[in-house]
Amino acid sequence: MSKDSVRKSFGPAGTPITFEKAEKILAEAGRISKSEEAELHQQVKARESDLDPRAVSLFQDVLEQLPELRQDTTLQNGRVEPEYKSLVAEAKARLVPGQATRSYGGNPVPETLKTFLAEQLAQGVIVYDVRQLDSDPFYNYNHDDLGPNGLQTTGVYSPYAQEQDAYGSLSFEHTELTPQKLEAERTTVQTYNVLDTTQGHNGFTEEGGKGRAILKQVTAVGSARIQNSYDNAYWPDEYGRTPGGQKWAGNFAILADGSVHAVPASRRSSGDQMILTTASLGRGKLELFNGHLFTDDTGTVTYVGKSGRLKDFKTVDAIELLKAAGFKVREGLTVTQE
Predict the structure, then answer these.
(1) Rounded mean pLDDT of 279-287?
(2) DSSP conformational letter for 309
(3) Which of 168, 229, 249, 327 would disulfide-bridge 322, Cβ 3.0–4.6 Å?
(4) CA torsion sign, 164 to 168 to 170 to 176?
């Protein structure tokens, strides 16, 4: 949004501006640049008589927070950016042609994948750090996934700029997908906990996927299927699976070593019941792509979605990367811009 757009969003002089209208003005501003911040200051001062008390308070709070959040962003990026070169070198060491190298998850890196990535990197695809914050905060309005309404910072490459530890169900070993692991899932008998949808409210103690997940132990083959999963419940077992024995959920990322990762089906990790997102998969490493990935019961990739935040960036060709890594991909599949 431009300065002129901010000005126009207030409407003609004399138009009452309620708290709800003030929230919409802030939300429509999107990422609030410094010039838009200055225009907000001017409009709030000029239109003070049109603002109801709650709207005045909201604008004052936001205008006080903006400089503080920009400073937080500077500090975060100042910590992250110096690590970039060493992280690139770390990833490249796993992609040396002709050498037996292993991915972050401990699996052999195929030579076909190394060759493909060398070509893609030579073409200028982006290698990014999901922890990097956008310098312009935004006002979250009725977007529950991003938390309560209010001013907040967001990532450059994902709405959720975060860093989580790589252990438990979020270890690189557990989250990495390979064709061999998907095949083993659907053919190997295992004992695991799965959401019991016959109990409570479709497997939860409260309606709407809230409260506590109700799990039951089963001994059966797993599943090569990967689909979306979302709830707001406490999971007593971070390795718990969703119906059908699904081990992973559809939020996925491709790390800089070419390895493909998906969040655990529970979307929870040790000691942290906050729901995991695509950004959770960075874990201090660089990425090439993030979004959503779905597979069918045979382990064939049926959907690849590119995060909306990556729309304007030249990212790795995720479909061809999956093929180079040996995954089965549905014929004619293309990346969907989310």
Answers:
(1) 96
(2) G
(3) 327
(4) positive
Give this prediction's pTM. Answer: 0.92
212 is in which domain, residue-wise? 168-337
Closest to 51 (Cα-Cα) out of 103, 10, 91? 10
Q: Using an 8 Å Cβ cutoff, are 263 and 276 in contact?
A: yes
Confidence of residue 145 (pLDDT cuts 50, 70, 90): low
Q: Judge if 322 and 207 occupy the same domain.
A: yes
pLDDT tens digits, residue range 225-260? 999 999 999 999 999 999 999 999 999 999 999 999
From the number of C-beta atoms within 10 Å of its C-beta (0-12, 13-18, 19+), residue 197 rates as middle
Q: Is 106 in a helix, a strand, or coil?
A: coil
**3-class DSSP state of 109:** coil
E runs forming strands in the chain: 138-140, 150-152, 176-177, 189-195, 204-206, 210-213, 215-221, 232-234, 248-255, 260-264, 287-295, 301-306, 336-337
- Based on the domain organization, do 304 and 206 belong to the same domain? yes
Domain boundary among 79, 103, 127: 79
Locate all alpha helices (DSSP H) within 47-107, ordered by sequence: 53-80, 84-93
Do 186 and 40 reside in the same domain of the chain? Answer: no
Of 79, 110, 126, the one marking the end of a domain is: 79
CA-CA distance, 69 to 81, in Å (whole number)?
Answer: 18
Please spell the DSSP secondary structure of 14-38, one letter per residue.
T--B-HHHHHHHHHHT-B--HHHHH
